């Protein structure tokens, strides 16, 4: 079931109550003969249908009724589902149709999800059938992004691929240098900057990081390189130099924020990739935006709240173990821990508010459903937890 620990309870329930458990549901058969099992996939809310989806390492997409967690349907997609899906609205036919990302609470038509056997799969959520499947040679564990009539995604071999979103046909591919040295588990996802004026011929730009320590900006129409910036240390020999953080884009400041496993967090100029500031925090695997700051998650140094100019506002050391990409809801920061389960922190100060031990730890990224005011988190033993937030919404 899981156990919630409320921190500093003597200061009053209202000050520290964060969630209550709405339901739990097992979505993977436990593998009792493995020393460690991991579920890296994230749940996906579909409140317009009254469903929540959970993808598992055995390749099953499971749909649950979102009120009580009762089984609705399942679909075998082959390879393990370890990434966060993208929910799309689809209108019209394959030749003249349009697509857009479904807003929270909007009824999505398709789900796009990557698999551990290297496929990007489009699933029709009404027919519960695969619309198209495009195979690559690398694991896909990051969320695809939608461009102008195309979908872009990246795999574990640092291949950036663009497809016609309606039919799944190849448009272009960029291949980064294949890294033969040791790399950290995980890959940076894509960030997309739309064109200023598509009717005038402007192109959007894609940004991502590679295992060789470089950050790249690609023309979203042609796949050509706009700029390439190395972030790996120039002195000494570091074991891990990956850029595993999906870039955060701030067009109003002309800035993007990423991190290198060895040299820390960087702000780069959007136009040319030049460095603006660098904060040295080791082993940062993800960065998210918080209330007036960035939050970096490191498997070695825990969590850090970073000011917009790169100064560190707060640090919170966690127990040894891997941290998921954090989730920020209002002033509360949620992060999954590979051994300890789920934590909640005050995002502005880093103060620990509550913890939720699920018996096995969590590797998947928690997600928020604003319609039901609920956080979904999974355990590495394959149990989905629906947590209703208290004092939010």
Output the keywords:
mainly beta, Methylamine Dehydrogenase, Chain H, five-stranded antiparallel β-sheet
Notes on the structure:
The chain has a domain at 38-175: Methylamine Dehydrogenase, Chain H. It is built from 1 helix and 34 strands. It has one helix at residues 13-16, and strands at residues 3-6, 19-26, 44-46, 51-55, 60-65, 71-76, 86-91, 98-101, 110-114, 119-124, 129-135, 145-146, 150-154, 159-164, 169-175, 191-193, 205-209, 214-219, 225-230, 248-250, 255-260, 264-269, 275-279, 284-290, 293-298, 302-306, 312-316, 327-329, 332-337, 341-346, 352-357, 367-369, 374-378, 383-389. The relative contact order is 0.14. Residues 104-297, 308-389 form the Pyrrolo-quinoline quinone repeat domain. This is Pyrrolo-quinoline quinone enzyme repeat domain protein. It holds the Pfam family PQQ_2.
Q: Which outline best applies?
A: globular
Strands side by side in the biggest sheet: 1-31-30-29-28
**How far is the N terminus from the C terminus?**
25 Å
Return the CATH class of the domain at 38-175.
Mainly Beta
CATH fold type of the domain at 38-175? Methylamine Dehydrogenase, Chain H
Number of helices: 1
Return residue spans where pLDDT drops below 50 for at least 5 consecutive residues.
7-15
Q: Report the average pLDDT across residues.
A: 90
Just name the CATH architecture of the domain at 38-175.
Answer: 7 Propeller
Structural class: mainly beta
Query: Please, what is the CATH homologous superfamily of the domain at 38-175?
Result: YVTN repeat-like/Quinoprotein amine dehydrogenase
| Number of E-state strands | 34
Radius of gyration: 20 Å
Q: Describe the main β-sheet briefly.
A: 5 strands, antiparallel
Q: What percent strand?
A: over 45%
Helix content: under 10%
């Amino acid at each position: 079931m899981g156990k919630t620990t409320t921190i500093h309870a003597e200061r009053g329930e209202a000050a520290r109550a964060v969630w209550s458990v709405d339901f739990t549901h097992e979505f993977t058969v436990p593998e009792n003969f493995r020393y460690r099992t991991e579920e890296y996939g994230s749940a996906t809310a579909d409140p317009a249908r009254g469903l929540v989806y959970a993808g598992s390492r055995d390749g099953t997409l499971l749909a649950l009724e979102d009120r009580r967690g009762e089984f609705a349907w399942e679909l075998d997609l082959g390879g393990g589902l370890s990434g966060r899906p993208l929910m799309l609205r689809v209108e019209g036919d394959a030749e003249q149709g349009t697509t857009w990302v479904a807003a929270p609470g909007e009824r999505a038509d398709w789900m796009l999800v990557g698999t551990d056997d290297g496929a990007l799969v489009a699933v029709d959520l009404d027919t519960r059938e695969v619309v198209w499947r495009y195979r690559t040679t690398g694991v896909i564990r990051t969320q695809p992004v939608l461009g102008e009539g195309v979908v872009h995604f990246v795999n574990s071999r640092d291949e950036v691929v663009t497809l016609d979103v309606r039919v799944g046909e190849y448009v272009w591919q960029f291949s980064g240098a294949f890294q033969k040295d040791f790399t950290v588990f995980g890959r940076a996802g894509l960030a997309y900057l739309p064109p200023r004026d598509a009717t005038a011929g402007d192109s959007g730009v894609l940004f991502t990081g590679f295992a060789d320590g470089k950050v790249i900006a690609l023309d979203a129409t042609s796949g050509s390189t706009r700029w390439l910036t190395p972030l790996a240390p120039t002195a000494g020999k570091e074991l891990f130099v990956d850029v595993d953080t999906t870039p955060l884009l701030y067009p109003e400041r002309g800035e993007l924020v990423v991190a290198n496993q060895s040299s820390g967090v960087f702000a780069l100029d959007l136009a040319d990739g030049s460095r603006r500031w660098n904060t040295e925090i080791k082993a940062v695997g993800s960065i998210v935006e918080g209330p007036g700051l960035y939050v970096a998650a490191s498997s070695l140094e825990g969590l850090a709240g970073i000011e917009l100019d790169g100064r560190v506002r707060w640090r919170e050391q966690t127990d040894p173990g891997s941290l998921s990409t954090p989730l920020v809801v209002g002033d509360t920061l949620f992060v999954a821990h590979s051994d300890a389960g789920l934590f909640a922190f005050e995002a502005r100060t880093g103060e620990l508010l509550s913890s939720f031990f699920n018996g096995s730890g969590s590797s998947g990224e928690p997600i928020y459903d604003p319609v039901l005011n609920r956080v979904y988190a999974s355990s590495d033993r394959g149990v989905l937890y629906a947590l209703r937030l208290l004092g939010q919404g």
